[in-house]
Design brief:
This protein is α/β, with parallel strands linked by helices and about 375 residues long. The protein folds into two domains: about 130 residues, Aspartate Aminotransferase, domain 1; about 230 residues, Aspartate Aminotransferase, domain 2. About 45% of the residues lie in helices and about 15% in strands. It contains 15 helices and 14 strands. The strands form three sheets. Strands 4-10-9-8-7-5-6 form a seven-stranded mixed beta sheet, sandwiched between helices. A four-stranded mixed beta sheet has the order 1-2-3-12. A hairpin with a 2-residue loop joins strand 2 and strand 3.
Length: about 375
């Protein structure tokens, strides 16, 4: 076995596709020690700078004092604490939906929703750039999986017309995690409603960043439960903690409690995480300065990159990819930036398509203007 696996690993190295973990010290923040050296990072999804916020940390500590460090069991056994219940109620109110249901990760939430709602006689329609968890969920559901052209409502309509039978679910990222662009949600919703399909939005990268009080991409477009009956959001990105949730109708949430295997058969999140998340949610909603600073930094980066002749991909979100092309070139640029003390991850196939490797630059409200300027100086030194 080891000989076969080692040969495959060697091939990945030769193709510049080998991935290695880095060891970080200290809390999630732009400046931290990684692999023994001080770096300025631009690859975290902590978009609002809440992961190490003192109020969130204090809430976590209070939660640990009250509930301990683990839930002890699945939600349906005896792991569903008052902390979990309070967070679900807060998330339902925040999203403007009757109910919300916690999952341990966004991956598990997507698996749970799609496998609970669809079976062999049904069909799932996904954007070609949807997150891997949505794609994997479709495969596990055994529904017919059809993928429409990226951000193309006409392509979706054509696919739906070919599959008029059974339940039909359209699933799309709200903000695409590797490109940073927004899905055309109003147009997708219109197509889905016209064809009698359900629309699910994975708003992992929109929640906290877009919309009123950070309510996400669905709110950004002025849509609600009637247009988007299934909303998934994660807690480990802009909210700075861990886990995920699905928000929707009473019938949807009760169906997931009964049938979503990734909910039923796993231990609940630590209640202390739920307590910390409730505080983070309050801060995300009330402290608009975080979003204002974030969008000012996005504008500063894009303006500076344009002056350097660097073509960032078309994105107005904290995800600002610099398309490179070949995987080896992306790795080389990432390593060159590290020499300058800048940490930016190279994204390569299979996460993105062949020939579209990139540096995935992400910004946080915890960055400063000086941080962005330092990144631009480093990019000028290594990429121009």
């Amino acid at each position: 076995m080891d000989a076969a696996l080692s040969a495959a690993l060697a091939e990945r190295r030769a193709q510049a596709l080998y991935r290695a973990r880095r060891v970080a010290d200290g809390p999630a923040a732009p400046r931290r020690r990684v692999d023994g050296r001080e770096v300025l990072g631009f690859c975290s999804n902590d978009y609002l700078g809440l992961a190490a916020d003192p109020a969130v940390v204090t809430a976590f500590q209070r939660g640990a004092d009250r509930y301990g460090v683990g839930a002890g069991a699945a939600h349906l056994v005896d792991g569903h604490s008052r902390a979990h219940h309070a967070l679900e109620e807060a998330l339902a109110a925040f999203t403007g939906r009757p109910r919300a249901l916690l999952f341990s990760t966004g991956y598990m939430a997507n698996l749970g929703v799609i496998t609970a709602l669809l079976g062999r006689r049904d069909a799932l329609f996904e954007d070609r750039l949807d997150h891997a968890s949505l794609i994997d969920a479709g495969r596990l559901s055994e529904a017919r999986l059809r993928r429409y052209r990226h951000a193309d409502p006409a392509s979706l309509a054509a696919q739906l017309a070919l599959h008029p039978e059974g339940r039909r679910l359209v699933a799309s990222d709200g903000v695409f995690s590797m490109d940073g662009d927004l899905a055309p949600l109003p147009e997708l919703a219109a197509v889905a409603q016209r064809e009698g399909a359900w629309l699910m939005v994975d708003d992992a990268h929109g929640l906290g960043v877009l919309g009123r009080g950070g309510r996400g991409s669905v709110d950004h477009f002025g849509l609600g439960p009637a247009e988007v009956p299934v909303l998934m959001g994660t807690l480990g990105k802009a909210l700075g903690t861990a886990g995920a949730f699905v928000a929707g109708s009473e019938a949807l949430i009760e169906t997931l409690i009964q049938q979503a295997r990734s909910y039923v058969y796993t231990t609940a999140l630590p209640p202390a995480v739920a307590e910390a998340t409730r505080t983070a949610l309050q801060l995300a909603e009330s402290e608009d300065w975080r979003r204002q600073r974030l969008h000012a930094l996005i504008a500063r980066l894009r303006s500076g990159a344009a002056q350097l002749g660097l073509a960032l991909m078309d994105s107005q979100t904290p995800i600002q990819p610099l398309l490179v092309g070949e995987a080896a070139r992306a790795v080389a640029l990432s390593e060159a930036l590290l020499v300058h003390g800048i940490l930016v991850t190279a994204i390569r196939p299979p996460t993105v398509a062949e020939g579209s490797a990139r540096l995935r630059i992400t910004l946080s409200a915890a960055h400063s203007e000086a941080d962005v300027d330092r990144l631009l100086d480093a990019l000028e030194a290594v990429a121009v």
